Amino acid sequence: MSIPREPLIELVGVSRSFGRGAGRVVAVRDLDLTVGEGEIITVVGPSGCGKSTLLNMLARLDEPDAGELRFRGRPAAEADVEIGYVTQSDSLFPWRTLLANVEYPLEIRGVPKAERRERAMALLARVGLAGFENHLPRQLSGGMRQRGNIVRALVYEPDIVLMDEPFGALDAQTRLLQQRQLQDICAEERTTVVFITHDLQEAILLGDRVVVMTARPGSIKLVREVGIDRPRDLDHIHEQPRFQHLVTELWDALRDEVLRAAPAVAS
Amino acid sequence: MTRATTTARRTVTLQQRPAARVRRRRLPVWAQSLALLVVLLAVWEAFSGRLVDPFYLPAPSAIADALAESAVAGTLWANLWTTVQETAIGFLIGALAALVAGIVFGRSPRVAAVLDPFLVALNATPRVALAPLFVVWFGIGFLSKVILVITMVFFIVFYNTFQGVRSVDATYLRVATVMGASQRQIFRTVILPAATPLIVLGLKLSIPFALIGAVIGEFIASSAGLGYQIKLASNTYDTAGTMAGIFVLMVVAVLIDLVLNRIARRVLFWQPESTERTTNTL
Ligand SMILES: Nc1ncnc2c1ncn2[C@@H]1O[C@H](COP(=O)(O)OP(=O)(O)OP(=O)(O)O)[C@@H](O)[C@H]1O
Ligand SMILES: [Mg+2]
Question: How many CB atoms are closer than 10 A to CB B61?
């Protein structure tokens, strides 16, 4: 059913630990994962299992201690890929207006002013932020800021977009809206996305494949193909048997890990 | 229906009444401040010469006379100009050097670590105590005052710049890096703007100290400046003249602060309004 894809990201036996001696924490261990061009991978796992650590390595902000990370077959350091990165907390520059924030990645690439304005405005309008372009981040709501963040990570059309729980802090309704917008944009841009969330339903809703990670040291517990056709009707997807089956199966896997990560709560 | 309307109306009147009362009975804040000033001056004027010997506490009118006298004679303007020049030149040189040093140190933790003990020691040295030495080294003229001002300004601006550059939120640096910004671009577009609030604060805090540096330098040895004028008056037990000089200094400090606040608000337009008041010791 799914078209075979060229591998864009390859993780082979990737491990990363922090600190040394008694204080050493192995954040992730022996990760093996291949992400195809245009694929949307969602990652769930208990808090502290190394999801952000994984994303930071993909963003090339951090390097694995062991194992290999390749983009289009080339080692991460030499690979010519552009990456968009949406952080867990909102990170619009408070000294720039929304528009200037979204133009930022184009500005540092030397895109002429008129063109970058046009591209930024078009995307802002797509996520319902037209009319707010001259607002400063502090004058926007949390949900608007997060949309701004996402738009800023998309505007330079990166090969890969990394998102670290981008909707984590939003209320349920806003979340649903943003999920819908994200799905539309991804469908149109055919961007490769690695999306971290603590919300299993969101993971199934948005992903082509869902990765469940184990408790720390994080490794991959299981990977499931979602196999629900796109475009997905996010309002009614919950009623589909396939969706319900996945929720049950993945939750069983995830629950064990969540309990392992927090034994105090289990007893 | 009717009930709801009545309740609504009642709520409205309840909310409006106190505000209306305030508006009717109270003067604006500035008018109240002014009234308080007038009262204080009047009490002072009445006390001086009756309850207190005017030699110790001259009346406001006597101070005004002294002020007018030196203004007419022209000495006030010459001295004011000297002090303002010393302050301004010392401030500009000190602040510029401190900005450069703060940025260099902030960007290279190694240099900062090596030089840190020296800076702590120098900063702990009371600069006022250095003033007599500066007079010996640089003479009783303009130069020794400017150098004293520089030492006063430098550390305040330096530490604030350093802190500003060091404490940039790591998230901003990370997103800029991933978006493909070079080190230079990150410095210009992320580190500098993020450090601006602290830099501006440092500049603001340092200005009164610059003025203090100039005046102290003039106290110790000089032949011009407001500090010199104040010292001359107090040497001849002319308390009215002394207080006239102090008054001028106060006005200068307040004016500089006003101008600076205006500039700061423009530069830091993106920051939420803060009610913060800068305080300084010494
Ligand atoms: N820079 C670092 N220095 C030391 N330890 C770190 C560092 N970054 C992460 N860790 C540790 O690695 C582990 C995994 O952290 P990470 O932030 O990747 O978890 P996470 O899965 O993103 O958690 P959450 O869902 O709460 O965001 C944690 O135990 C954390 O303490
Ligand atoms: Mg995280």
Answer: 14
